[in-house]
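User: These chains co-purify. Model them together.
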Amino acid sequence: MDIQGLPGRLLADLGPAIASGEIAGGSVLRIEELEERFDVSRTVVREAVRMLESMQLVASRRRVGVTVRPKSEWDVFNPTLIAWRLAGADRPAQLRSLGSLRVAVEPAAAGLAAVHADDDQRRALGALATEMTMTGRAGDLDAFLRHDADFHATVLQASGNEMFAHLGATVEAVLRGRTEHRLMPHHPEDYAVRLHREVAEAIAAGDAATAERAMRAIVTGALEELDAALE
Amino acid sequence: MDIQGLPGRLLADLGPAIASGEIAGGSVLRIEELEERFDVSRTVVREAVRMLESMQLVASRRRVGVTVRPKSEWDVFNPTLIAWRLAGADRPAQLRSLGSLRVAVEPAAAGLAAVHADDDQRRALGALATEMTMTGRAGDLDAFLRHDADFHATVLQASGNEMFAHLGATVEAVLRGRTEHRLMPHHPEDYAVRLHREVAEAIAAGDAATAERAMRAIVTGALEELDAALE
DNA sequence: GTCGTCCAAAGGTATGACTTAATCAACCCG
DNA sequence: CGGGTTGATTAAGTCATACCTTTGGACGAC
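Assistant: Joint model of the four components:
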């Protein structure tokens, strides 16, 4: 999902630098300077700039240069940008934003999934809940993370809403970040695992209200734990 | 927010064509062909392709060409792409997706706004609700639309969550599309206007639960009306 | 002090040559 | 005859350069 070619190299360098605030809003980059700094041709620089431009990270104006736009204008839903911010200095802020988004979206998705999921998806959720129980008890955080991410991605997918479905990858990034940075207990809380089981069963039974309620408990719990972990 | 220069011209032509399905997933475009078709240089074509690529609309592979990716891989949150789809053949599907998204996000945003809004925002919401009452009664759909969009944008902004805030522009696009295509009653329903007033008052009073409930009523109502209007 | 003109700086576009990688097919080996 | 390896071919990727276009700011006239 990442990069391609030389412009990708520039992106991988400039993008995170801007996203982390290291290059402040209002700064001006000149194309010629970038050519020298990265030792590439104008073509390459321009393509990289175009991509930053399409994320609303920068704006290019004649006679001025490539100016970094204020943070408030970024395309904050862009998955690449989210990844950069999660990897950089304002990971806390990004995690909080995404946490609120999850609280809003995932319960709704669970409710829809109870209505729209196909049989395979209902079965898969049950199986994933079981895996989470087992790997959670065993303290195998890697495997737990994998199944947790799969679980949420499956629910989002099963909602039948393409926009919800696309948040699967983002949620996975959140969960991974949480695990990698020790922002969650070393043994997943029992109650969280039980709630996942409850969501799976409610979706299997077509019980939208219960699925929604249980999922809301999961994501609000996650948000509270996150806030606590971030002091 | 749109376009800039010659690459913008290509984008404005290719983007909507892909977004509407006119150019199907799996199709292959060759750069040289595009050069001729639009009578521009390679530089320009490549930059346009880069931008389509960063929306995940296409992928460029050596020895093959620029292939249009399946719809399921598009960056469906990209505002430009949303605009293209709203303007094109699958406006109905896009409106439905966005409708569900609103149902998920706006109630949560209203709840947060009741806690985080500043005084100006609380005042502005009250004033906008008043305007909606007046222009709604007068049947001035244009003015009503403007205030309606402002209202929702302000709530999203006041939530204090940058991701919610960014959905303001998208919601406005939805509302505008709804009005322009006669998908709403010629006189806004009284109950909807009353609910907006209720949201404004709850946010002014810092009553998160009420704000959330009233906003949920607004957006679920809007979604139902949309579904009805789309048969 | 204000307005208008002019110039230079920086991005935007065009071109053509060259490099790189991947597909397809021919070919060789088993 | 089948399968894997190699090589030719094709289209994207990169580079260097020249030229065009816009525009911010300096400079001078009124």
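The mean pLDDT of chain A is 93.
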